[in-house]
Specification:
Blueprint lengths: L5 E7 L3 E7 L5 E8 L11 E2 L1 H18 L7 E8 L5 E4 L9 E2 L7 H8 L8 H4 L8 H11 L3 H6 L3 E4 L1 H9 L9 E3 H4 L5 E2 L4 E2 L1 H7 L8 E3 L2 E6 L9 E7 H8 L8 E5 L3 E8 L10 E6 L7 E8 L3 H9 L9 H6 L9 E3 L17 E3 L7 H27 L5 E5 L6 H11 L2 E5 L4 H14 L5 H5 L4 E5 L5 H18 L8
Length: 504
């Protein structure tokens, strides 16, 4: 009997879930995708229905296998990539979530951040976790659920409730759910909870005490590439489940950024720039996150510096859905090309505060520089340029922390098809921006993690051999023009800060 020739990946993102099947050289064999609902019950609150996510996961798996005429026996392994920090709390006995999932963008715990920062400041846990205190991470979201959902804390302390980010929720359901499902999370996702010690790669009792989280509610931490169990979901029954990573770490692996100094930026709902720093975690003094990049079974973990931007593609969606200035997200490029420049208009999309390198929960979105000259084309261009400016903010901090000057930036995600944005990004960074041949790097990274665990790929150098360039953008803007635009952006940032702070 021939060996299984494909690897399956589930990419569970902020707005949709997709299933992709890859062959041994990383080519897409088949895929399916489905969106899920976004809920905004209060200003700054963002929620998902975890049961809907599980339902759409089952649907896209079945659809991808059917479209590609792929049988279970053709699959060597399954890997998962997932939206990170999004917090699910469910009942172990029923498998029913106790509350809608609190999404990574949600800032309902902003007051708790301020309160905890009064002792030791925002960096009080950075030495242990690599993270600043922020509403972004899972620990305070989990504490909110334990304190706000009737009976949740008692269930958690008794071991009857289970917490997890989306990887844990899917892993539990894929391996049996209420009938013995595995309650696990990988090191990359665990490193984003603010409850894991970066050095020990385990839950830290000091952190659990500080955030008032019972140990019994937590999943077991496992490597990113490791044989976990056989899948029990009928469509994948018996397939080896062997890979889990947070989506941005998956994209780093999918971009073959496996050596220290390699960097990628993913342009999705948010924007995430990661720099591989090798086996040594680099502490940030410039507002970045120190995180786990990935870990193969039996090996030391690899670490990364990360700059997380909350709103990137989501700003285009806002222009489409809230202002109805465009019918489809792709229309923004043609609208922006109706004008030669931004008309001195700048859009700071601090809808839920600013993430790296500012970490200002009280910032709010502003449009600056408006005159009677400005039109919808200028606003569309300002929307696109906001992503490039925010990326420069992060890259400047990253080079300061690491001491490295990047020669190129590898890019992926839905926005990289926008030629205008990619050229402006190269101009604003003054480095080459490179799009790979493989467009779905997040799902590919999850497939790589699973395939490495079962021998489909020998090692990370085997992965590097498959990486190829699709398009390269080189800087074309004058230094004078670049710095003028960036100084104006920084003025706009200043006007967004402390907007929602309580007046004295």
């Amino acid at each position: 009997m021939s060996q299984p020739s494909y690897v399956c990946a589930i990419d569970q993102g902020t707005t949709s879930t997709r299933c992709m099947v890859f062959d041994r050289v990383g080519r897409i064999v088949s895929q399916a995708q489905q969106e899920h609902a976004q809920s905004f019950p209060k200003p700054g609150w963002v929620e998902h229905d975890a049961l809907e996510i599980w339902a759409t996961t089952r649907q896209v798996v079945a659809a991808a296998l059917t479209r590609g005429a792929v049988e279970r026996g053709d699959l060597a392994a399954l890997g998962i990539a997932n939206q990170r920090e999004t917090t699910v709390l469910w009942h172990r006995g029923t498998g029913v979530p106790l509350h809608p999932a609190i999404v990574w963008q949600d800032n309902r715990v902003e007051a708790s951040v301020t309160q905890m920062a009064r002792t030791g400041g925002r960096d009080r846990f950075r030495a242990l976790t690599g993270l600043p205190l922020a509403s972004y991470f899972s620990a305070l979201k989990l504490r909110w659920l334990l304190d706000s959902v009737p009976g949740a804390r008692a269930l958690a302390e008794a071991g009857d409730a289970a917490f997890g980010t989306i990887d844990s929720w899917l892993a539990w359901n894929l391996t049996g759910g209420v009938d013995g499902g595995l309650h696990i999370t990988d090191v990359t996702n665990a490193s984003r909870t603010q409850l894991m010690n970066l050095a020990t790669l385990d839950w830290d009792e000091q952190l659990l005490d500080a955030f008032d989280v019972p140990h019994a509610v937590l999943p077991r931490i496992v490597p990113s590439s490791h044989v976990y169990a056989a899948v029990t979901l009928p469509a994948l029954a018996g397939v080896t489940f062997a890979g889990m990573l947070g989506d941005q770490q998956a994209a780093l692996l999918g971009q073959a950024c496996v050596n220290a100094g390699d960097a990628k930026n993913t342009y999705g709902t948010g924007c995430f720039l990661l720099l591989n720093t090798g086996e040594t975690p680099v502490a940030s003094t410039a507002g970045l996150i120190t995180t786990v990049a990935y870990q193969a079974s039996g090996e030391r973990p690899r670490y990364a510096l990360e700059g997380s931007i909350a709103i990137a593609g989501a700003l285009v969606q806002w222009l489409r859905d809230n202002l109805r200035m465009i019918a489809h997200s792709a229309d923004i490029e043609s609208l922006a090309r109706e004008v030669e420049d931004n008309g001195d208009v700048y859009f700071v999309p601090a809808f839920s505060g600013l993430y790296a390198p500012h970490w200002q929960e009280t910032a709010r979105g502003v449009v600056a520089g408006l005159t009677r000259y400005a039109n919808r084309g200028h606003l569309a261009r300002a929307v696109l340029e906001a992503t490039a400016y925010q990326t420069r903010d992060v890259l400047t901090a990253m080079e300061r922390d690491s001491g490295m000057r990047l020669a190129e930036l590898r890019v992926d995600g839905g926005m990289v098809v926008n030629e205008l944005l990619m050229q402006f990004q190269a101009d604003m960074l003054d480095v080459d921006v490179v799009r790979p041949d493989a467009s779905e790097t997040t799902a590919l990274g999850a497939a790589y993690a699973a395939g490495l665990a079962v021998g489909v790929w020998r090692d990370v150098e085997d992965i590097r051999a498959h990486w190829a360039v699709s398009r390269r953008w080189r800087p074309q803007m004058s230094a004078q023009r670049r710095e003028h635009l960036y100084r104006s952006w920084q003025k706009a940032i200043e006007r967004s800060l402390a907007w929602s702070a309580t007046d004295a």
